[in-house]
Design goal:
By secondary structure, the chain is an alpha/beta fold. Helix content is 39%, strand content 14%. Strand 2, helix 5 and strand 3 form a beta-alpha-beta unit. The relative contact order is 0.12. Bound molecules: pyridoxal-5'-phosphate (PLP).
Length: 403
């Protein structure tokens, strides 16, 4: 049963709930989960046509699936891009981006503060295939400009960064990329389209780890690239069909439904994060607090402009201590004293998560590399969820009061 087509000019919150393929002949109101690997064809002629023109009908699950299509349509509508293509994980989306955009001999410029696996993918894995990468400061535009070469094909940014929440200027990076004849990709995992829409600042591609806020309840892995239809249909879709970094229909269904509540979750989690960041900033046992929503954040004004006036839901802070061993002991005391938050490495969940970056996400770096990156032994990262913020505050006070 086909619903009426949606009118033009709907708000993003409406698109987040309503965009997708039409309902089946049964008229289900919640989008169906098409848990099937193959699709039956009416006759050989149609089958031949759909194999040659995959966007005109479903054939096999590696190529596409209606539940996955609904997720892609909805995410693209929320990001304001023409199209999107789903992948099995966020890293698979960045792999797909590289496979589609880069050739041997091309050059990539990437912030050195991006997600660790992204750094490895560009430096180590793409390096094997003759792609060269330069890593530059997250915030110093001069470094990005100076890194441009005649063979620069792609600029890759992520904002705010994990765990120190440094914010880069997407519009300025889009200018540098386009002046150089290159493309800009932005990993929008930390803000999601509820806060930040990089395409409006000139980004060409938006990368998502659906595993984080899009799912929002820590259940499944997923990823996506959002961008122009031409790139999605002509370049990325054939690679997914060939290489198989396909999103499973069940996972697509979970993130599709997650998108419906993304806006209100982000609003609530950002408000909780701001309250906790202010509490930490005024705490005598806490050194620096890293949160774009605080006036003390070095890129506060840019963040407010770029992120719909909200700081996101990741807050990091340094406990006070002295030498690295004491700092680590103090950080562990705060983490281990928590009775509500989860000690885990994910983020974007409704459950607040507390982690020690120096021994987990950044544990493989040397102490000097960590110092250079600003990740001290006293640093703690919070991915704030939907619990009452006063309970999280009390959870932190349990440990802080012991220092
Ligand atoms: C988690 C994460 C990724 C990778 O996503 P997966 O779904 O874990 O593969 C990429 N970028 C950022 C910023 C992330 O936080």
């Amino acid at each position: 049963m086909n619903k009426k087509p949606l009118p033009e000019g709907l708000h993003r919150d409406t698109l987040a709930v309503r965009t997708g393929l039409p309902a089946s002949q049964w008229g289900e109101n919640s989008e169906a989960l098409y848990l099937t690997s193959g699709f039956v064809q009416p006759d050989s002629e149609t089958m031949a046509h759909r194999f040659a023109n995959p966007q005109e009908g479903y054939t096999y699950g590696r190529t596409s699936n209606p539940t996955v299509t609904s997720f892609e349509l909805r995410l693209a509508a929320m990001e304001g891009t023409e199209a999107a293509i789903a992948t099995s994980t966020g890293m698979a989306a960045i792999l797909l981006l590289g496979m589609g955009v880069l050739r041997a001999g091309d050059h990539v410029i990437c912030s050195r503060s991006v997600f660790g696996s992204t750094l490895n993918l560009f430096a180590k894995e793409f390096g094997k295939f003759g792609v060269e990468s330069t890593f530059v400061s997250q915030v110093d535009l001069k470094e990005w400009k100076a890194a441009v070469k005649p063979n620069t094909k792609l600029l890759f940014a992520e904002t705010p960064t994990n765990p120190l929440t440094d914010v880069c200027d997407i519009a300025a990076l889009a200018d540098i990329a386009h002046t150089a004849g290159a493309l800009l990709a932005v990993d929008n995992c930390f803000c999601s389209p509820a806060l930040q829409r990089p395409v409006e600042s000139g980004a060409d591609f938006i990368i998502h780890s659906g595993t984080k806020y899009l799912d929002g309840q820590g259940r499944v892995m997923a990823g996506a690239i959002c961008g122009p239809s031409k790139w999605i249909v002509d370049t990325f879709a054939p690679i997914v069909r060939t290489a198989g970094m396909t999103l499973a229909p069940f996972n697509a269904w979970v993130v599709l439904k997650g998108l419906e509540t993304l806006g209100i979750r982000m609003q609530a989690q950002c408000a909780n994060a701001l309250q906790i960041a202010r509490f930490l900033e005024s705490h005598p046992k806490v050194g620096r607090v890293y949160y774009p929503g605080l006036e003390s954040h070095p890129q506060h004004a840019l963040a407010m402009k770029q992120q719909s006036g909200l700081g996101g839901a990741v807050v990091s802070f340094d406990v006070k201590g002295g030498d690295p061993a004491t700092l680590r002991r103090n950080a562990f005391t705060v983490i281990d004293s928590s009775e509500v938050m989860s000690i885990a490495t994910n983020l974007g969940d409704t459950k607040s998560i507390i982690t020690h970056p120096a021994t987990t996400s950044h544990g493989r770096l040397t102490e000097e590399q960590r110092q250079a990156a600003g990740i001290g032994q006293g640093l703690i990262r919070l991915a704030v969820g939907l619990e009452h913020p006063s309970d999280i505050q009390a959870d932190l006070e349990r440990g802080l009061s012991k220092l």
